[in-house]
Amino acid sequence: MRRALRILVMATLLAFVMAMSVSCAKRATTKGEGEMATKPEVVSSRPEIKGEKVEEIKEEVIKPEEGQVTETEMAKAEEAGREMMAKEEITFEDIHFDFDKYFIRDDAKPILEKLGKYLLENPSVKVLIEGHCDERGTNEYNMALGEKRAQAAKNYLVGLGVSPDRIDTISYGEERPLDPRHNEEAWAKNRRAHFNILR
Amino acid sequence: MRKVAVFLMMLSVCLLGSVPSGAIVYIDINSPGGVKIPVAVPYLLPEGEGAEKYARGISEVLGEDLTSSSIFTLIDRDAYLQEVTPQIFEPGGISFSDWKMIGADSLVLGKVSLKGNRVVAELRLYDVAVGKLLVGKIYRGPARRFDMIAHKFANEILYQYTGVKGVFDTEIAFSARKGKGKEIFITDLTGRRIKQVTSNGSINMFPRWSPDGYKLAYLSYRRGKPAIYIRDFLTGRDRLLFRTGGFKSPGCFSPDGSSLFLTLTRNGNVDIYRYIFGEEKLVRVVSGYGIEVSPSVSPDGKKLAFVSDRTGYPQIYVTSLEGGRPVRVSFAGYYSTSPSWSPRGDWIAFTSMSEGKFSIYVVRPDGSDQRLLVTGDGSCEDPSFSPDGRYVVYIYRKKGYSELRITSITGFGDRLLLRGFKEIGSPSWSPRR
What we know:
The complex is a heterodimer of chains A (199) and B (433).
Chain A: H1 2-22, H2 33-36, H3 39-43, H4 47-62, H5 71-91, E1 95-96, H6 109-121, E2 126-132, H7 139-159, E3 167-173, H8 184-190, E4 192-198
Parallel strand pairs in A: 2-3
Antiparallel strand pairs in A: 1-4, 2-4
Chain B: H1 5-8, E1 12-15, E2 37-40, E3 45-47, H2 52-68, E4 72-74, H3 96-101, E5 106-115, E6 118-127, E7 132-142, H4 146-162, E8 171-178, E9 181-188, E10 194-196, E11 204-209, E12 215-223, E13 225-232, E14 237-242, E15 248-253, E16 259-266, E17 269-276, E18 281-286, E19 292-297, E20 303-308, E21 315-320, E22 327-328, E23 335-341, E24 348-354, E25 357-363, E26 371-374, E27 379-385, E28 391-398, E29 401-408, E30 415-418, E31 422-429
Parallel strand pairs in B: 2-4, 2-5, 3-5
Antiparallel strand pairs in B: 1-7, 5-6, 6-7, 8-9, 8-31, 9-10, 11-12, 12-13, 13-14, 15-16, 16-17, 17-18, 19-20, 20-21, 21-22, 23-24, 24-25, 25-26, 27-28, 28-29, 29-30
Helix pairs in contact in B: 2-4
């Protein structure tokens, strides 16, 4: 049982890495594995397609006699996946904002510069910027505030030379907190702009 | 929910006996801390099979309504000396001295019968002190909406004592978490009859009533990007109004229902627009460099209260729709949002933060006479006025817990309307129908 699970995880990872390298994946996110599960719902207007794909991959790997992946292959795949994620995680970190503010803080600028550079080097890539707020304040004002945060990040990228056509924004206000707790630490995390890379 | 018969329910009403010409204004509801009127509401007399349930039901809802108004206090039913029998309805059948003895100023008597799936209720309100009928009415309606009959008569009772009809038959729309999504719900004023308006598992928020109470504009993320829809309860259909662009939010309908004030993001700017139905035209009414959001129109349709962060912090402004400079009216704290203009025109309620806590304030539309209305150990937010301008519904929330509460504009008679939902938001009080 455990072994089967392990093979499943490995094979899924391998399939994922292959999919990424062939660049046939229409949409992918740029953050850690934990985020992968939640992102498609955000960026895809047809989340059910994503679900089917995951299903297909699972069906493939459950057959034990087929495609016995060697340990080294697995290790390679693992490493490749880690590298890819590690590389992209550095590039596309969330940026954070002060309470009730939407100006770009100094600590956000290096992240945006990296993202801008990446976008200029990869002209086919588009980005969807999500604006988020902490739970304090009224929902409607926070929705507007989230939009202004996403817009501020967009403007910064446009200032770096990225075409505005390649940047879309969406506000989730206080509806999708990263950290559900009700304290300063959580609030600081939740006041963010998140970048979804669309290939 | 397709035809929404609940909204279309027609109650035929007949007058019983003579109604006093003009209402007797016993109390000034606007004066704080007024004395409450003790009222006796014995169970109605059931006539015929199956009427018992409705006899009790109507009496109970009536009692709750009157108590919730913060104008009446209900005398315990165990204390009543005279029993309700058929004889009580005969001339001279009411022993007013018995009712006086238990301290009742006011007495509600009635009987109910069932005709198929419709109820017929005869209801009478008496002034105990002078032994006089104040108002009597016969209601006929679908049995399952017996509560509406109680609400309608409670409205009449309030009218007799205050000169303004009650709002017991109105409803409140709100959003709340359900599963992964946020859906829109409607509750009656008892908090027990709740209808779910949306069920798409996405984010649905900011319900706003049309002036006739048959439509609800709202925001939905059901297609990924935020879009404004209008639900028509008469047809059960949704109309997609705006989809393109970023953040958007329905603000309020104009008092004549011919247009919708809303917030839209265009070219990165969050501004307030007016969408004119029929002409399908969009006119920008308030603009700025930052955030202009949450329009609330005055009852004469000539002015607009809204939120702007033009000074660096969100505050409430009032602008004339005929032109002119917006005037700031909120001076409570450095963060003030969500204005609601009273349908009576005399107050604007809003949320304001001071010392990290959100409270509800009211202010005159010219910015004078600002008062703190509700505060607590959690946050009090998002006020919405009742159609008679006497009450405000608002959200109370604290560390993930939330509830809907109703407070009297005098600041007295704050009560819980609804709990048990997660992340209750943006309540909107329906007009009278």
